[in-house]
Amino acid sequence: MPAFRNPVLPGCYPDASICRVGEDFYLVTSSFTYFPGLPLFHSRDLVHWRQLTHVLDRPGLLTLEGLDVSDGIWAPTIRHHDGTFYVVSTLAVNRQGSLTFVVTADDPAGPWSDPVPLEAEGIDPSLFFDDDGRCWLTACRDAVQGGPGELWMRELDLDRLKLVGPTHVLWQGAVRGAWVEAPHLYKRNGVYHLIAAEGGTESNHSVTAARSDTVTGPYVTDPRSPLLTHRHRGPGEPIHNVGHADLVDTPVGEWWAVTLGVRPIAGTHTLGREVFLVPVTWTAHGPVFAPESGAVRLSERLPSIASGRPDGDTAVLAGRADFDTAVPAGRTDGDTAVPAGRSDGDTAVPSGRAHFGGLEWNSLRGPAGDRVRPTADGSGLDLDLAPEPLSSTGVPAFLGRRQQHVRFGARTRISFAAAHPSEEAGLAVFQHQDHHATLALTVDGGGQAQVVLTVREGGTSTRRASVPILTGEVLLAVDGDEAGYTFRVRDLTAAQWISLATIERSFFSTERAGGFVGVYLGLYATGNGHASDGRARVHWFEYQPDPETAA
């Protein structure tokens, strides 16, 4: 039977929501404090996805400065009605909903409107358009009584984009004492089916359900709950933390769900929560997830609309981001050649170059364009030394992309001459502002140029290794696998790479760092609290998955 490989969006793309318009599918995910926010994807077959845009793609729309990496933009929902696309989401501060908003667009590729605030408590908003044209917003919040959480509903006036009428409390979940969240509402054969998530977003995560004959309830728990979970499966299961599902039908009448999950190794994961595709059928009792297996699988049967399709677009972007526009494709810098492209199993990886400003790149908490920009003469990418270090909750001079494979290689060619030991620029493996590692060019107290590997954990930075260099231009590399992340440097005048250290893989895991995100790999420059007119120049950055294990 033709099959595809899960996850369909590898790397940190949590809380996926999906809708269909004709033969086209659109999907959005959480983005936390990364900018631009709310990545939006398109597919024609549910398996191969291409990013169209970010919904929040302009500065100043929402304030993210001062926030922990795992706060920010949480759990969006995308829906389409009468020619208009709607995305609702929440700005979270200190792990609580601070602002619920809606944005709209006629074209999913944008432009999207500015956020319109909604008078809504809690998190995880969703929209449901009933047969009579009325629109209902559902979300979760602390329970008024009982609890601990409850799903509630209020009507959304589409003309004014304003919540109107009374609030209806719908349901407090299937599991006593468990927080209920991530509501999505569907109507089938006159029955309203409320799908939710319970058990937190970690090992007890699950999909539960309730149903009602009227949209405002009361809703009765589906006794089959949980409808989908891996919490009962052993540690050898390749996918864990399954939950937060959204359903969609295909033009030929099949049903599928997107759900989040993680791929742990020895109990920890570094890639974040990824998007998995799961078949769904309907019975008189409601939806049945993964009817053939009862589980989310790494290899799953293809949707019928994908049968015979070529690989086409994908959200996995590998290869070299060549910031030096004078470098021809195929040229070799050191021992690293511009890749010619490759295919990994069911997922094609586009060849060639990702250009600066490509959709795979993000900054932290706002645009870094005033500090990270192409040079005027096209000779590279300039990073001005920002006073904010990566450990700040401001907007550092940082440009990164998601790690999407356990086995990978990332390298860059960078030029930088530090004037003071506080100045540094280089390569970052970033999990959290207080949990990351950097491989950077700097100088010691005597002015000797060196490359230093620094690890930050729990608010403390520790120098793990260093090596003196002869010139201010080097190749920096980090290679990851199941065991750890190995950091290497090579002076352009030398023939061999120097390995500085290997940091165990679990150090970069969510279980150790906390929060809700996965690893980013990127470039940064900082004066570590000091104003500086220093500048680093990056010629290229390359990301390559291991061909044996690439998702």
Please give a structural write-up.
There is one protein chain. By secondary structure, the protein is mainly beta. The chain has one helix and 43 strands. The longest helix is centred in the C-terminal third of the chain and has 4 residues. It starts with a strand and ends in a 6-residue tail after the last strand.
SSE layout and pairings?
Blueprint (H helix, E strand, L loop, with lengths): L2 E3 L11 E5 L2 E5 L5 E2 L1 E7 L6 E7 L15 E10 L2 E10 L2 E10 L10 E3 L4 E7 L5 E8 L6 E9 L4 E10 L8 E9 L2 E8 L7 E7 L7 E2 L6 E2 L10 E10 L5 E8 L11 E10 L2 E4 L9 E3 L17 E4 L9 E2 L2 E2 L4 E3 L2 E3 L13 E2 L7 E3 L6 E4 L12 E6 L5 E8 L8 E9 L2 E9 L5 E9 L2 E9 L4 E8 L3 E8 L6 E7 L5 H4 L6 E7 L8 E11 L6
Antiparallel strand pairs: 1-24, 2-3, 3-5, 4-30, 5-6, 7-8, 8-9, 9-10, 11-12, 12-13, 13-14, 15-16, 16-17, 17-18, 17-19, 20-21, 21-22, 22-23, 25-43, 26-27, 28-29, 31-32, 32-43, 33-42, 34-39, 34-43, 35-36, 35-42, 36-37, 37-38, 39-40, 40-41
Quick structural overview:
With 551 residues, the chain is mainly β. 1% of the residues lie in helices and 50% in strands. It contains one helix and 43 strands.
Attribute tags:
6-stranded antiparallel β-sheet; 43 strands; 551 residues; mainly beta; 8-stranded antiparallel β-sheet; 1 helix
